[in-house]
Amino acid sequence: CETCSKEEAKYRCPRCMKYSCSLLCVKKHKLVLSCNGVRDKTAFVSVNEFTDLNLLSDYRFLEDVGRTADAAARHLAMHGSTTKRFLSSLRNKAQKCNIDLRTLPVGFTKRRENSTTFNSTENKFYWHLKLVFPHCHAEYTLKRVPDDKTLADILKPYIDPVESDPVVCQRLKIYTSSPHSDVRILMKIENRRQNSVRYNELDASRSLLDNLKGKIIIEYPTLFVVLKTLKNDMVVLGQ
């Protein structure tokens, strides 16, 4: 025992690694060394001494961090009256543009992701936008997309053979090699039954704002870019 130096040690402190023989010596060593007895989960361990137990310990530590971060994000105290006023103002602005904008409760992924804002000076929405290319299993998230930008201009950096990024162009090759007349832009109609999914077809030549008018948007728009010949089961309203 490293405290009394009399009895055979039975315990080892997870924090400072001191050996103790009894509860009395454990308490005494904590008092003398100001040790709390809790293992330091972030203490340095050299590669030579790293074992499966250390790996498991690190994994559990990261799990704890993830749970704590998630709990903080869900805590209502983190989303006070300022956020509520902002969301209420955003919905009112959208309503004036004939857009039924709906927000999700705190903790939902889409609520956390959404970066949509309204610029009062310019009287313009800057949308958080998601583009889905189902034929290539690709998704792209755009931030601060002005509402007066046409859908054709929004898609140019992705499917235009000349203006698109070479890496993106290669990934979306099936789109860039197809005629523009074959490209269709669809948006899922919200508030329909699970077995009755339908899509609105949008006009690529018109602005994002014009295309969103008269529609329900939950948090932010998600646009599906599909090819006319490969639409599969994506049924457009009216068909």
Automatic annotation (TrEMBL):
<comment type="function">
    <text>Required for box C/D snoRNAs accumulation involved in snoRNA processing, snoRNA transport to the nucleolus and ribosome biogenesis.</text>
</comment>
<keyword id="KW-0862">Zinc</keyword>
<dbReference type="GO" id="GO:0000492">
    <property type="term" value="P:box C/D snoRNP assembly"/>
</dbReference>
<keyword id="KW-0832">Ubl conjugation</keyword>
<feature type="domain" description="HIT-type">
    <location>
        <begin position="1"/>
        <end position="35"/>
    </location>
</feature>
<dbReference type="GO" id="GO:0008270">
    <property type="term" value="F:zinc ion binding"/>
</dbReference>
<keyword id="KW-0479">Metal-binding</keyword>
<dbReference type="Pfam" id="PF04438">
    <property type="entry name" value="zf-HIT"/>
</dbReference>
<dbReference type="GO" id="GO:0048254">
    <property type="term" value="P:snoRNA localization"/>
</dbReference>
<dbReference type="InterPro" id="IPR007529">
    <property type="entry name" value="Znf_HIT"/>
</dbReference>
<dbReference type="GO" id="GO:0005634">
    <property type="term" value="C:nucleus"/>
</dbReference>
<comment type="subunit">
    <text>Interacts with FBL, SNU13, NOP58, NUFIP1, RUVBL1, RUVBL2 and TAF9. Interacts (via HIT-type zinc finger) with the RUVBL1/RUVBL2 complex in the presence of ADP.</text>
</comment>
<keyword id="KW-0690">Ribosome biogenesis</keyword>
<keyword id="KW-1017">Isopeptide bond</keyword>
<dbReference type="GO" id="GO:0000463">
    <property type="term" value="P:maturation of LSU-rRNA from tricistronic rRNA transcript (SSU-rRNA, 5.8S rRNA, LSU-rRNA)"/>
</dbReference>
<dbReference type="InterPro" id="IPR057721">
    <property type="entry name" value="BCD1_alpha/beta"/>
</dbReference>
<keyword id="KW-0863">Zinc-finger</keyword>
<comment type="similarity">
    <text>Belongs to the BCD1 family.</text>
</comment>
<dbReference type="InterPro" id="IPR051639">
    <property type="entry name" value="BCD1"/>
</dbReference>
<dbReference type="Pfam" id="PF25790">
    <property type="entry name" value="BCD1"/>
</dbReference>
<keyword id="KW-0597">Phosphoprotein</keyword>
<protein>
    <recommendedName>
        <fullName>Box C/D snoRNA protein 1</fullName>
    </recommendedName>
</protein>
<dbReference type="GO" id="GO:0070761">
    <property type="term" value="C:pre-snoRNP complex"/>
</dbReference>
